[in-house]
Amino acid sequence: MALSVEGADEYINSFTVDNEDWNDYATEKKQRIINVAEDVLVRKFPDYKIPDKAVYEFANVLAISYNDTNRLNKQGIASFSITGVASFNFKDTLKVDDESLIPKKTLDLIGEENGVKLSGRQIQWMVM
């Protein structure tokens, strides 16, 4: 099956709880989010087949991550307010790469498709 906005809409509206940000986006932005989600997963897991469901699951996370409020946080803004409407304060700025946002369910879907167990942990060098 080929990735599509229609397929993503169906999956996200059927299998995710927090789908409002995804549904608020225009078709063109949804397609860009799908493209980025697929690109990140293919680069992270070059030796594995990436199922459409895994891309859609991650695309929804990216849609939330890049909504208007979180986008300001990613750009390093610590707080802002709209007079008489709302005030937003971010505990920490969300300056992380997209790869670090891959949810466990996406890892599980890729693992199931390939008969392996993937974890979100990364091995890193540490000096003691």
Keywords:
128 residues, mainly alpha, two-stranded antiparallel sheet, 6% strand
Summarize the structure.
The chain is mainly alpha-helical and 128 residues long. Helices cover 52% and strands 6% of the residues. The chain has one domain.
Overview of the molecule:
- With 128 residues, the protein is mainly alpha-helical.
- It is 52% helix and 6% strand.
- It has a two-stranded antiparallel ribbon with strand order 1-2.
- A hairpin with a 3-residue loop joins strand 1 and strand 2.
User: Which structural class do the helices and strands define?
Assistant: mainly alpha
Distance between the termini: 48 Å
Described by strand count, sense and barrel closure, the largest sheet is: 2 strands, antiparallel
Instruction: State the domain count.
Output: 1
Number of helices: 6
One letter per element, helices H and strands E, the order comes to: HHHHHEEH
Number of strands: 2
The percent range for helix content is 40-55%
Indicate the mean pLDDT.
Answer: 85
Radius of gyration: 16 Å
Q: How are strands sequenced across the largest beta sheet?
A: 1-2
Morphology call: globular
